[in-house]
Amino acid sequence: MKKAFGVIELLISFLLLSIIIAGFMHMTLIQMQDGQMKHTRLEDAQEQADQMIDEIQNIKQKNLEYEKELLND
Question: pTM (2 decimals)?
């Protein structure tokens, strides 16, 4: 019985440790820029991703307009 109790304690400790790590990672996001580690808030990373998505959509829209102009001429 003591072995089973020890295994359960071990599993619970791993669970608690993973919850703590997940909480830390939720608050910050580690990014590599210029070969150096940089801590960035999750909201900042999401904002950067949204900006990149907007830029890609703008490029796609410009490409569609350019193709339409080529077909019309």
Answer: 0.44
